[in-house]
Amino acid sequence: MAPKRKKSPSIDPQGIFSGMVVFLVETGVQSRRLQIWKQKLVQMGATTEERLSKKVTHVFAINSQALLQQLDGQLLKRFKPRVLLYQWLEDSLRSGEKVSEDQYHLLVDMEGENTKDKSLVLKLVNENTSSADELSPHNEKIKSDVKKFKSDAENKGLSEVPNSPGSSDSSPLSQTLTNPIPSSTLHSDLSLPYSPPDLNRSITEIFGKLINIYRALGDDRRSFSYYKAIPVVEKLPFKIESADQVKDLPGIGKSMQDHIQEIVTTGKLSKLEHFETDEKVRTISLFGEVWGIGPATALKFYEKGHRTLEDLKNEDSLTHSQKLGLKYFDDIKTRIPRHEVQEMELLLQKTGEEILPGVDILCGGSYRRGKASCGDLDIVITHPDGKSHKGFLTRYVKRLKDMKFLREDLIFSTHSEEGTDSGVDTYFGLCTYPGRELRHRIDFKVYPRDIYAFGLVAWTGNDVLNRRLRLLAESKGYRLDDTGLFPATQASGGKRGARASASLRFDNEKEVFDFLGFPWLEPHERNL
DNA sequence: GGACGGTCTTC
DNA sequence: GAAGACC
DNA sequence: GTCC
């Protein structure tokens, strides 16, 4: 079934900038900033003009020098727009309403000097990095879920020193799916971390715990509701002091308001405290960490009287996969340093090339998102010609087993081999870093290019931004999955092989950012 | 009060 | 075909 | 849990 897309971008015609027609002087402004401003203006009701005309009500510039460099003074005189410093925008955005323009008028005496101190302005601009707001509070229905909101180790192991996943702009997929750049591009350019305000962490932290708990209990729906609420709360530019301030936000209903109210007044959430001290909840959560054991089975074991992982080992109803999950429980939990993932990716690419020249093999997931360490390997495979991926996975897996890279299987299914069928081949298993016995989880997915239009692979290396990015994608009816792929559509609908809409295909990350209206960040700009 | 994913394994 | 689990 |  073709994807239902469309839906206007999240624009609020009644937003605070409603009615403004804006011309932005680009001189002296980082293009990223500019994008953010432009986007915010549009989202909050303004329209932007590419050239100065009589329609224009406001002109923004960083200083008068820049202004005159780009605009003819005569035109300004003729059209008489209000000429303001960008700082007005920033301050308005921060306060959530239009601030008085008084302080921000950019006086232009035709000679070009100006009262404001340029360096000061720049400094102010640098300071405020309240980032793009993607969503206005109403609008858009969420059309599809983001599954896999695993808040696994990625969230716990906060020690993120993300590297910059690299990506070149103009490359077709085959090149986009190349290796992340080594860590050298970092700290190239100064300060100005693109750091969104994060003023409500007390709330999002608690919600994060609830996500895990509800998921362990098998209540994925509820869990997902909290998952969705986090980026909404997270992007607020102010510290919440009362539930009133969130009552109209998307994804925040009655219960969430109550929770927020309790958190901001007492600093904690009794509901969470109860969960955390409940033996049953704790035990089920623990059992659920074993690969292959989910909420239902965990509960069953709990009711049978099992309380520890040792107890579980004596359980005779375990499946093969569950036994493996138990046996390698500690191994699997061990995180893999980034550089090792990189080496393994290289090895996998090399091996793949030997079997099928031209094949695209890439490590996605948290590695691609620039994490300093990864919980597992998430390997994405495709082939540029759209056909020769068929049958590849079987040979590939065999080869990797021969060389003792792959050790144990968890799931292995192939759909691409049977002629007309163009499903997704999947392999889940355990692998080892060469010369070591420690098991790591590894997934392979082979995507026929026509079914999955590929999106970005790197995300941003910054969790807060990533959540927003995903939320944004979702608000437009798309799904951005954990591996970093953008499935164009579901390959389902009765018969696999139904052709996906080709309307959604991105050849590089920038296209995806643009498509979503997310400000483009160079790789080195993505880290906090 | 129903929807909120797609796919594979196991029963 | 339903339940359970995983991404 | 939220949205419709």
TrEMBL record:
Q: Where is this region: Disordered?
A: 154-193
The chain positions of domain BRCT read 12-106
Alphabetical GO CC annotations of the entry are: nucleus
Q: What is its EC number?
A: 2.7.7.7
* PROSITE patterns attached to this UniProt entry: BRCT, DNA_POLYMERASE_X
User: Where is the protein localized?
Assistant: Nucleus
Domain of life, source organism: Eukaryota
- GO annotations under biological process? base-excision repair, gap-filling; DNA replication; double-strand break repair via nonhomologous end joining; nucleotide-excision repair; response to UV-B
Which cofactors are reported in the record for this sequence? Answer: Mn(2+)
The main place the protein resides is nucleus
Q: Which UniProt keywords apply?
A: DNA damage, DNA repair, DNA replication, DNA synthesis, DNA-binding, DNA-directed DNA polymerase, Lyase, Manganese, Metal-binding, Nucleotidyltransferase, Nucleus, Transferase
Asked whether the keyword DNA-binding is assigned, the reply is yes
Positions with biased composition (Polar residues) = 175-188
Quote one Gene Ontology molecular function term. DNA binding
| Pfam families in the record | BRCT, DNA_pol_B_palm, DNA_pol_B_thumb, DNA_pol_lambd_f, HHH_8
Catalysis: reaction(s): DNA(n) + a 2'-deoxyribonucleoside 5'-triphosphate = DNA(n+1) + diphosphate
Q: Where is the composition biased (Low complexity)?
A: 159-174
Supply the PANTHER family for this chain: DNA POLYMERASE LAMBDA, DNA POLYMERASE TYPE-X FAMILY MEMBER
Sum up the protein's function in the record's words: DNA polymerase that functions in several pathways of DNA repair. Involved in base excision repair (BER) responsible for repair of lesions that give rise to abasic (AP) sites in DNA. Also contributes to DNA double-strand break repair by non-homologous end joining and homologous recombination. Has both template-dependent and template-independent (terminal transferase) DNA polymerase activities. Has also a 5'-deoxyribose-5-phosphate lyase (dRP lyase) activity.
Q: Which family does it belong to?
A: Belongs to the DNA polymerase type-X family.
Protein known as:
DNA polymerase
